[in-house]
Amino acid sequence: MIYENILTATDNNITTITINRPTKLNALNKKTIDELHHIFSAVAKDKQTKVILLTGSGEKAFVAGADIAEFANFSVEEGVQLAASGQEKLFNFIENSKIPVIAAVNGFALGGGLELAMACHIRVASDNVRMGLPEVSLGVIPGYGGTQRLPQLVGKGRAMEMIMTAGMINAEEAHRTGLVNHVVAQADLIEFCTDIAKKMMKNSPMAIGMAIKAVNANFTEGENGFDTEIKSFGKCFGTADFKEGTTAFLEKRKAVFVGE
Hints:
Blueprint: E1 6-11, E2 14-19, H1 30-44, E3 51-56, E4 61-63, H2 76-95, E5 101-105, E6 108-110, H3 112-119, E7 122-126, E8 130-132, H4 146-154, H5 156-165, E9 168-170, H6 171-176, E10 182-184, H7 189-201, H8 205-217, H9 225-236, H10 240-250
Parallel strand pairs: 2-3, 3-5, 4-6, 5-7, 6-8, 7-10
Antiparallel strand pairs: 1-2, 8-9
Helix pairs in contact: 1-2, 3-4, 4-5, 8-9
């Protein structure tokens, strides 16, 4: 598939996906969401990719929000479908990816952009980052999981304030509240994320995927996180990665995992 709004490259088992609409500050529109869904689906089947880095093109924005012009005249039914489709195709899809996804957040991450970053497993911000959910200033609320994931990351009170004031916070505040894991200079952002990815790639891809599932279960309605952990823990014993990991430990050598 030829992509119009994203760039993709794979190097040393790390696939970097770049949202590339710089004249629109990388705003999410339907086509971009569809393209992101397609590439994430493709990468999920690619055994060469061990970690995904997601970022925005340019130095101004990760994703500055949704493309408002695209839905300004939507009906109630169309609004419901917009949120439901986006969550299923992209945001929930990323959150439940067995391959870890690191958001390299450069510049503005607003509205759908912040929601996209929050769907990733880890967030690293450049020091010029500005983050917020400004939807209520437009007469609407976050619709791509923002009302659910923001409280999980920063707590209910802070989330309520951010959402109801429609304000932005800087990188320092985002780090202090746990919204991002690290803050680095913009010039060092991709390299820093790559270093985290390399640390992940030393470990079992199978175990990492199961750990993601277990952690997410605690935040999924109707699921018991402890039960999911127990079942996933047990499944690990039947994998080639478990056999390799334990054998390597006993033989005092580095494990060579195959992700099976």
